[in-house]
Structure formats: C-alpha cells, structure tokens
Design goal:
Layout lengths: L2 H4 L13 H10 E11 L5 E12 L5 E4 L4 E7 L2 E2 L5 E2 L2 E4 L7 E14 L5 E6 L4 E6 L20 E10 L31 E4 L3 E7 L2 E6 L3 E3 L9 H6 L18 E3 L9 E4 L1 E8 L2 E8 L8 H19 L8 E6 L6 E2 L5 E4 H4 L7 H17 L6 E3 L6 H18 L5 H17 L23 H18 L1 H15 L2 E3 L1 H12 L4 H7 L6 E10 L2 E11 L11 E8 L6 E7 L3 E3 L11 E3 L9 E3 L2 H8 L9 H16 L5 H11 L8 H16 L2 H19 L6 H14 L3 H11 L3 E2 L2 E2 L2 H13 L5 H11 L3 H11 L5 H13 L5 H11 L5 H4 L3 H6 L1 H7 L4 H11 L4 H13 L5 H27 L13
Parallel strand pairs: 1-11, 8-9, 19-20, 20-22, 23-24, 25-31
Antiparallel strand pairs: 1-2, 2-8, 3-7, 4-5, 4-8, 6-7, 9-10, 10-17, 11-14, 12-17, 13-14, 15-16, 18-19, 21-22, 25-26, 26-29, 27-28, 27-30, 32-33
Amino acid sequence: MGQAARTNPAGSPLTPGISQTLARHRAATISDVRYDLTLDVSPLDSAIGCITIRFHRVGGGDAIIDFRGRRLTAGLANGRQIPANAAARGHIRVPARLLKAGENRLDFRFIADIAPSGASIIRSHDPTDGSDYLYTLLVPADANQLFPSFDQPDLKARVRLTLITPTTQPVPAGDSGRGPQGQRPRAPARVEPTQPWSVVGNGAIESAVTSNGRLTTRFAETRVCASSPPSSEPPGRQRSEGAPAAPARAPNATSETSCTPAPISTYLIAFAAGPWHHTSSTHNGRTITAYVRASRAAEADLDTLLALNQRALDWMERYFGRPYPFEKFEFVLAPAFPFGGMEHPGAVFYNEDRFIFRERPTLPQRLNRFSTILHEVAHQWFGDLVTMRWFDDLWLKEGFATFMAAKALAEIDPAADAWKTFYLSNKPPAYAVDQTAGTRPLWQELANLDQAKSNYGAIVYNKAPSVLKQLEYLVGDSAFQVGVQQFLKQHAYANATWQGLLGAIGQAAHRSLDGFGRDFMLRAGMPVVEQQLTLRNNTIERLALSQHPAKSLSGSKAWTERTEVLLFYSDREPVRIPVELRSRVTEVTAAKGRPPPDFGFANARDYGYFLLLLDSSSVRALEAGALARVEDPFLRAMLWGALWDQVRNYRMPPERFVHLALSELPREPDEQVVPFVLARMGRAVSAYLLQASRDSIQPEVEHTLWQAAGDKARPYGIRKAYVDAFIDLAATPPGVARLDTLFSADSVAGEPLKDPTRWDIATRLLELGAPEGESRYGSQVQRDTTADGRRRAFIAAAGRPDAKTKQTYFTRYFADATLNEDWAAGSLGEFNALEHQAVTFPYVRPALDSLPFIQAHRRIFYLETWLAAFLRGQTGDSAVAVVHRYLTEHSNLPLDLRRKVLQHADELERTVSIRQQEHLSLPVDSGGRPSTKR
C-alpha cells in the first residue's frame, strides 16, 4: 500500500497505525496533554482501566485517539456520550460537535490484555515460588494497545497513574510457557511469596491503601524537582584531580522540594508490579531503589548495580551540564525482558538474565552490563528529556546513548579500554548491515508508526554512535560537548530532530555541518577504503587511500571524513598521520619517503567510519608475525577485524584466516580480543569451509581450543572463551567424548561447573545427535528447575535434529499464546543449527512468508533475530534461490521488510560465494571430488 493510502488526517477515514500525516495534524492542533490513568491488574490476565485525557485544542475537526486494546467499554467527551461506533481500526474518532476550542476532557473505560507475550503488560510466572510479575512494554507505539492515548512521541504528556494490584500472590493462572517437551505443565501449587506486592512507576508514590485484599497505589504526576546547577567542569578533569566533586542533582521529592510537571512521551510510560524484593542506596543526597523478583534476590549483586547506576548518573550530570531531569530514579530487573534495557524515566527496566550472573562473569560480560547501564542512564537526557520528534530520528536517542556510554566508561574506568570495547561492539555489526543492498540512512523515512519496529537495528544502534565518534573527531571534543549542552537546553522536555543537533554542534564549532548531514544522516550506505602502498628503493613511494561506495545505491560521490593513518614499525616509534578524505583518491603525502613500515593501517584509533581493505603487503606482514608485535590490544582488535573483512570480501581464503587464528591466539592476552577472534574463526570453520576442508582442520581446531581451555596460566576469562568455543565447535568423535566428560566435571576454566555451561554442553550434544545427548539433557532438566533452567530447557530442545521437533517448534512460534517471546527468540539459533540444514531448509520460505505477521505481532528486535537465524543457518545456493524467489514474487512487499530481508540475505550470499570460490580453488582427486591436498 502506498503512502497516500496510509495517511489518516483528522477528517479522513480511519486506517490502521499512526500515520505521519495524522501525527502532524495532531501536533499542530493539540497541546498540554495530561493523562490520569487507573489500571486494575489484579485479575492477572486483564487490565481493567479508566483514563481521563485533558488537552488544549485549536482549530476544528474531529479528534482521533489511538486505541488497540481488547475492548472499549465507555467514552465521554466533555461529559457527553461518544457514539458507540466511534472505535474502529485502532482509533477512536471523537466528533467535532462534542469538542470545543481550548480545554477538553475525554473519559474512557476499557479492557486490555495481560499475557506472557504479545500484550503491552507482560506477565512472567516464576515457577520457583509460584509468583507472578507484571511489567509494561510500550515502545515504540504500543501504549495505545494498553490505553487510549495520542500515541506519538511529540505529544508529550503529564502522566498520573493509579494502580490496583493484589496485596499478596493470587492463585497462579498458568505458566509463561509450556514445558520443554511441548506439553502444558500443571499449574504449580500455590506458594505464598516472601514479599508482599509492590509497584514502581514513572512518578513517586503519593499514597498506597490496602482494602479487601487489594493494594491501590497512586503515583504523583511525572515531574522534575528543582536543584542547584551542576558543575560545569568537564568530568574527565574532575576525575584526574582526585575524587570527583559531589554533583548537583535533582533530589528525591520531599515535602520541602519544589517540583514542576515533566511531560513524557507515551512510549516511556511504565510500571512494574509483583512481590518484588527491593533495596535502596543513598549517595550525595540521591536515593536509588532496585527491584528484583524475590526468588533471585540472593544471587543479584544489587549493591554493585546500585553503585554503577549512581556512578552513571554522576558522570552524565557533569557532562551534560544539567541535573538528572526527573524526580526519582529506580530500576527493575525484569524477568524474560526482550531487550537489554528500557529507559523509562523514574523506572528503568533492565534484562534480569544479563544483570544476574549464574556463573563467574567474564570481562566482556561485566563491561556489557555496565555499558547497558550507562546507555539507559544517558537516555534520561537523550531520549527522555529531549525526545526525537518522530521515529524516523530513532538514531538520535539510541546512537547518542551508545556513544555517551562509551565516553563515560572511558573516563569512569580507564582500565576498561572503552574505545576497544566500542569498536568490538559497534563497527562489525554496523559494517555488516551498511554494506548490504538493504541498508538505509540514519534518518529513516517513516510514513506510519506501525512500521517503526523495522527502524530498530544496527543502523541506529551501531552505525549512529560510530558516526558520532567521527563527528566529535571532526569538530573537537570541547565543541562537541558545548553543542550537546546547548541542544539539551534548547529542547528540554520537548522534541527535536537531527538538524537541531547538528546545528547546535556546528554553532559551537563555528562551522557548517550541512555536508556531514548529507553524508551521514541522509545518505544510505558506507564507503570502502582501500590502502594502496607502493615501495621503491626501500622507501614509501606512494601511499594512497581510494574510496568507493560499498553498494551503488549510495551514489558515486566521495564521503568527507577525518581519519588517522598509522605506519607501524617494530624497531621504532610508529608514525601517525592525520588525513582528511575528500575525494575518490587521497594521497597521503606525509608518508612519501619514509621507511617501509611493517604494515599500514588507515583507521588508527577507529575515528573513521569506513570499511578498510588492507594492501596485500600489510596482510602478508600481519600473517608473517607482525600481528604478534603489536602491543596495543585496541589496535590488535581492529587488525583482526580488518583481516576478517578481507575474508568476507573474498581477498583471503577462510582457511588461511583459521590457520592464522590458530597460530596467533596462543599469544593473545586480551580477554576481549580472544572471544572476538574465536567467534570469527568459528564462523569460518562451521559455515565458510567446505566439508573436505573442515574435516581436515577440525581436529586441530578442537585440540587447540581444548588445550587452551585447560591452560591454568591463562586468565579465567580467556579460558572460559576457549571453553565456550570448544562447546560450539566440537564435532569429531573425540570432541564429542570430551564434551560428555566436561558435562560431568566438577570444574571448568578453573571455576566450579555451573548450570549455564552444563546447558550449553547438553544443547550441543542434542544438536549433534550424540548418543549421550538425551540423557544429559534429561538430567539437566531435573537438576536445574529454576525459571532460567526452564527457559534453557526449551531452547536446548529446539536443537534436536529431527523433523518432528522442528515442526513442533515452528508451529508453536505462531500458535502458542503462552510462549514468551524471550523463550522463542532464544531458541531460534538452536532450531537453525548449521548441522541441521537439510531438516530446516524447508522452513526458509515459511519463515520469509511470516515476516508481515511477525512485524505486526512481535516486539522490536524479534524480526531481526528471526531473519538472522533462518538465513545464517543455511550455506547453500538453494537457500539463496529461495530468498530471491520470495522477493521476486512479493514485489509489493513493504520497503522496510524488503530491506530487512536484503540485509540478512547478504551474509548468506557471501557464505555461498566464499564456499564456491573455495570449491574452485581445491584440487580434485581421481574421482573428480575436492581434495584437501594442496
């Protein structure tokens, strides 16, 4: 359907979703919105609600309210009855005759769903103690699935919530998913929780009254509380001079505190309810409260989490030059939460499983947890205080939160090597999508909010922060910070666009950023930069950087960027040369006449946003031992990334990369670089190599991984990375035997063997169809009866290699309303194990056919996970043919979905091409079969 048919201005017939035309009309005619919302969630499967909406109106015409809940039971406009047929196609049309100029009041009664998945209130059942927990999930445009509202980000509202809940645990209504074998489990016996029910919401609690077994909690209207201005001194300077000064901040509300209303967007409205365990900490006058379900309170390191959130708030206040923008800060560790976190003001939600470690965490796990905290705290300013006007500017909040998280980590914990972490987390996924035919600009045109889920992905989460790093390098960190502070001041408690951000930073830097905006905000795709190094008479005669677009859709114009060229010498100090790329070919004149380096690298310190293809002499040098002479782990990480890009761009056979990894990894001491390289070696072995080559190298791979996993001289984090890689890649009979031995061991990587690793082993044994698989799986199901254990049992069982299992799971993905999305998403990788291609190939086309349903009925990121699993689980050209046929037969497929398919098909097509090139390079034996003899 074209854009014109999707619009629904106030006077036209109602159509599904929220069109940009409707949103613009409402933003121009409606202001000063206030919601007074009451929800009774004591039934556990239904939210019975009433809401009063007050707003100021100018102009004429009907008012369009958004509502997709189960049922609207009553409606009044300024005290007069709204027609019974007013609700249709996800909206409520309030006739103009019932409205007036100026202040208006609408009153609605309604019923909305509470369910394990697919609803705006998620119910998570804890089988450990029989408790149920509820929490909202309204992003990007699901607030109207819960209550009638103007569900668009630029109609911010003051929100007051009243929540009616049980006082103690009611009789359980079922489970959050069937058991691992597919049967529906019996309802657990009623167990009284150790904690009474408590609630958390955006605002502070004004009153809590218990009556007839129900708790009625009334929250104050969302607001900001006055405080003195924060220090303007840069946070890095404060840290370098000793302990940071106590920052000014918005304190928790007291009777003496002066507070004013703080409007928020509908997608940020939130509450959580259940028998939570909670604890608080107070630091420099600010109290933070943490909530976790009672059965996991003992294993949650809440003191550490509270301290990390305090440190994050302190840093952000100093950098942004203004106090925390809301009245209070609390966070919830939400069970079965489908994202890493969600930034609701006053009630941040974090993913419970990523924040509670069931076994000793590795350094990447700890850094990922703190980075998530920093990301969500940064959102309080970029996203909550200042919100994008429309979801076409989603990058404006997500990219900024990720970039600020890296800046904060770099100054809070210098030992973390935050920019290495930033590179490893962002550049590979950004490049993987941005060099495909399905890429799109940072500013992503969006005609209707029902398409907003498609805007989530690597472009906004990984490319955007990478572009911001280039922007800061371009204008300087001081101008960047001043511009950001000015931007926040100009748009506080309101909405903004990317033009406003670049305008503020450009003004601070005294330069126009219009060209930067055209290159990075409005232009799809990315440049590929190739190093060209020419030597003569033992000196550099020419070093040139040529750039071209990764895909023709980007146009032929060169990108303008600043970068730093590194000439590495093992016997002298390296040479760093700042370079500005402006044309198709850039001559690095400062390199001419210098001694030939061990290797060159044209993106030192990762400032540039481009895919770098190394010159052949640099690649040979790295393979010949130069990589081992690089002491900087950040540089080593980028070099490994560049070598992997050589593989994916058909310039290095995957077998060469595997041999290089096997020879260099024993010398690698960095706890982040090791798993990064192991993951790429694993993809090369399991997907890129033909079977003959894999059979030849597999024993050496398993031996190397097993030996390193048991090397007590290595740090725990490195040994654990090898253990995980061994579990993922073991396939030979000796390897399977070692897996089975490991399952029964008392320790692994020098630590007691815990259930998460046992589950990984049992899952791999099932995937391989090993004789021990079923017995190991069964014993682990009996051993680990926790909620996480039940989830892992469901995930592991998807890895059975038989057709019946695949059919059962694929059916359940759509037909089982009790199946939590977190469980389903977690099982997709095991369902599509590469060893099962013959069994899963028939599901590639049904998986593609179901994309419109998934987009409409699943949360953000689920569609990405779905496509990645089904397409990365194949390595044959027959799967490529299925994708191409699907796209040909669906010429009217919405552009956002077509792009998603093209993004994920790219890796499948590269895999097939790499395997075909390897096939052509292999000699054949006397029978015409590929031989591994070279």
